Amino acid sequence: MDAEKILTELSFKAVRSSGAGGQNVNKVSSKVVLSFRVNDSQALTAEEKEMIFLKLAARLTSDNILILNCDEDRSQLKNKDIVTRRFLEIIRKALVKPKERKATKIPKAVIRKRIKDKKTLSEVKKNRRKPDFD
């Protein structure tokens, strides 16, 4: 993944933020909406796109567009910076390949101990029975 190349493929849109904030909210478009078209990306390989489709399926639209919003700050520039960092982190996490699990054998000492414990418990229960005097 080439971060600089991906950043050129992002599209930003400034929107008026919702919620409390008084007159500033009504006048200034400080909320930033980032959108990234996964299918059209030249920076990602086919394998990387497939991983993104699998891991970020819940976050993608039906057209395979990843949309992120940020209205944490009053500054449009800071919001753009925050949403860009968040986007790169999400993409990096999606492209991490999990380590393959290696199947391990149960050690023979553990098997022997389990069988020994079963025999011990069996003896304890056998000794609790009423004696048979026949």
From TrEMBL:
GO terms for biological process: rescue of stalled ribosome. It comes from the Bacteria. GO terms for molecular function: peptidyl-tRNA hydrolase activity; ribosome binding; translation release factor activity. Belongs to the prokaryotic/mitochondrial release factor family. Keywords: Hydrolase. This is Aminoacyl-tRNA hydrolase. Coiled coil: none annotated. It is an enzyme of class 3 (hydrolase). SUPFAM superfamilies: Release factor (SSF75620). Residues 16-32 form the Prokaryotic-type class I peptide chain release factors domain. Its EC number is 3.1.1.29.
